[in-house]
Amino acid sequence: MLVYEGFDQQPASTSQVIGQSDFNSKLVNFGAVTPNSAGLNSPMGIAQDDGSVYIADTNNSRVLYISDPNVSLKADRVIGQPDFFAFQPLVPPSASSLYWPSDIAVDSKRNLYVADQLNRRVLGFHFPASGDAATLVFGQQDFHVNQLNEYGVGTPSGGLAMDSSGNLLVTGNLIGASRISVFDVPPFP
Fold first, then answer.
1. Global pTM?
2. Per-residue pLDDT tens for 23-57?
3. What is the distance between the alpha carbons of residues 67 and 173, in angstroms, rounded to a whole number?
4. Is 17 helix (H, G, I), strand (E, B) or coil?
5. Where are the beta strands (DSSP E) in the chain?
6. Euclidean distance between CA atoms 19 and 72, whole angstroms
7. How many CB atoms are closer than 10 A to CB 56?
8. pLDDT of residue 27
9. Distance CA 181, CA 153 (A)
10. pLDDT value of position 17
11. Three-state DSSP class for 31?
């Protein structure tokens, strides 16, 4: 993952790289056999929140949180796995597990929303810390179900956004019916 500076200049140049030791490396998980706090495996989503960064580390079935990428490019927190070294999806799903997170969004109150693609849901975390469980689930009847259903999000296909009213918008496919679902976000418990 590259960080660019100087968009007012042509061409913009990269100033940092996250998930690799240098600009020329292309090793999964920073070259380690298992994930760690510095490596990535097919990141698909990124969101910024007051200078901190969330990264959907898709193939490791987790989201990483970097509190200040100007200080360290290693993650401070991991969401969706019990620690930085785990990467297996939990079956059946739970409120603290992820399976192929494809996108993320952060609202104005620093709450995190994760498109948990292969669990066919979106999870809402109240400004999470490592190991925290989600307190909201969209697209499934509870945290332990991942079945296709006509009222859910289908398979969130990589797009999450918050609108100006605080609603959650989710792109998804459901048995051939491509659509965008709009969810009113209830207050976090």
1. 0.89
2. 888 889 888 889 999 999 999 999 998 889 999 99
3. 33
4. strand
5. 2-5, 13-17, 43-49, 52-57, 62-66, 77-79, 101-106, 112-116, 121-125, 136-138, 155-162, 168-174, 177-183
6. 12
7. 30
8. 87
9. 7
10. 80
11. helix
Residues paired with 17 in a beta bridge: 2
Instruction: Residue 3: name the closest of 23, 25, 26 by CA.
Output: 23
Kindly give the pairing relationship between strand 77-79 and strand 2-5.
unpaired
Kindly report, residue by residue over 104-157, the tens digit of the pLDDT: 999 988 999 999 988 988 999 998 766 789 999 998 889 998 887 666 676 666
Tell me how far the alpha carbon of residue 141 is from its chain's centroid.
21
Cα separation, 25 vs 64, in Å, equals 20
Contact of 100 with 118, CB cutoff 8 Å: yes
